[in-house]
Amino acid sequence: MTEALRGMLATIDKLEGRTVVVIGDLITDEYLFGKPVRISREAPVLILTFSEREVLLGGAANAANNVHALGARVVPIGVIGRDNAGEELLALFHAAGIPTDGIVTEIGRTTPVKTRIMAGGYQATRQQVVRLDREPAGEPQPVTEDALLARLAALAGRIDAIVISDYGYGTVTPRIFEQVKTIARRANAIVSVDSRYQLPRFTGVTAATPNEAELEQLTGVATDDERTVEKAGRQLLERLDARMLLVTRGSRGMALFERDGATSFIPIHGTDEIADVTGAGDTVISTFSLALACGATPLEAASLANVAGGVVVMKRGTATVSPSELRQALGLDA
């Protein structure tokens, strides 16, 4: 057994004893499955006969579910609307055994829903045809923000890591982010962030996990090869004033940038013939943050997150990874 493998295995054994707060945009992922039957006479589109509906935890809720699946204690903090989608999200949390006392319900707010229409026969691979998003209008109300801050304050001193999962729906306001950093300093906790549209405002964190396209967009550097990826990564790391940056690169694996100057390019784990990348970023940041909270080195944590990402993209829909699956993926008995 190599030293790297031994380090990852030791980290997996420690996952259960940690507490992680996941704060961000809670999303209901809805899948509608249908079998193609013919082309419509009304328009050049497929007609699908409905077969089934599936609802899963998405966004920050998926990140929380991933932490839970890894065996750690997770506390999701976020806002939902008083609507059917919000009720379904709460029911999914309850069914998984995840606490919901950190979730605030705001009257008049829409719970974000991503509805994916999936087409395919029962024996064939189901393909996403179109996605319909229902989104809230603007940031949460001031009273909701106060309630979220109160829930954060109640957790001070009892956490090992805080994961910020920002999908652009305004949950993590500037006030909330400052509170996160204050609590993390007092608790000596890891703070990691995955932000779809506003990563530059999350400065002074432990780690950020952009993908390669986001890295290119934020720095204006074309990430054509490892040399340009490193140039862009170093530039963004300095801009964020973060301790480390983990860049997901799709079929080219990951790149880890550490503040002390170390850069590591990690090849993809498993095959590049993926089934579904939905929610893979949630799995990566959850595994990476939890591993760091367990005392893993940045490279050990990134390598384990790389394995977790390689496992989850072979699953359909928004999915999670368990410690036994990580051990199996590393070639060890569960």
Features:
334 residues, alpha/beta, UDP-N-acetylmuramoyl-L-alanine:D-glutamate ligase, nine-stranded mixed β-sheet, four-stranded mixed β-sheet, 10 helices, 13 strands
- What oligomeric arrangement do these chains adopt? single chain
- The largest beta-sheet arranges its strands as 5-4-1-8-9-10-11-12-13
Helix content: 25-40%
Sheet-strand content, in percent, reads 25-35%
The description of the largest β-sheet is: 9 strands, mixed
Helix segment tally? 10
CATH superfamily: Ribokinase
Anisotropy-based shape = globular
Structural class assignment: alpha/beta
Distance between the termini: 16 Å
Number of domains: 1
Indicate the mean pLDDT.
92
The count of β-strands is 13
What features would you describe in this structure?
This protein has 334 residues and is α/β, with parallel strands linked by helices. It has one domain: UDP-N-acetylmuramoyl-L-alanine:D-glutamate ligase (3-Layer(aba) Sandwich), CATH 3.40.1190.20. Helix content is 36%, strand content 27%. It has 10 helices and 13 strands. The chain has helices spanning 3-14, 60-69, 84-96, 142-153, 174-187, 212-219, 226-240, 280-293, 298-312, 323-329; strands at 19-24, 26-39, 46-59, 73-81, 103-106, 113-119, 127-134, 161-166, 190-195, 207-208, 244-248, 254-258, 263-266. The strands form 2 sheets. It has a 9-stranded mixed β-sheet with strand order 5-4-1-8-9-10-11-12-13, with helices on both faces. It has a 4-stranded mixed β-sheet with strand order 3-2-6-7. Helix 2 (60-69) packs across helix 8 (280-293), helix 4 (142-153) packs parallel to helix 5 (174-187) and helix 8 (280-293) runs antiparallel to helix 9 (298-312). It is globular, with a radius of gyration of 20 Å. The model has no long low-confidence stretch (mean pLDDT 92).
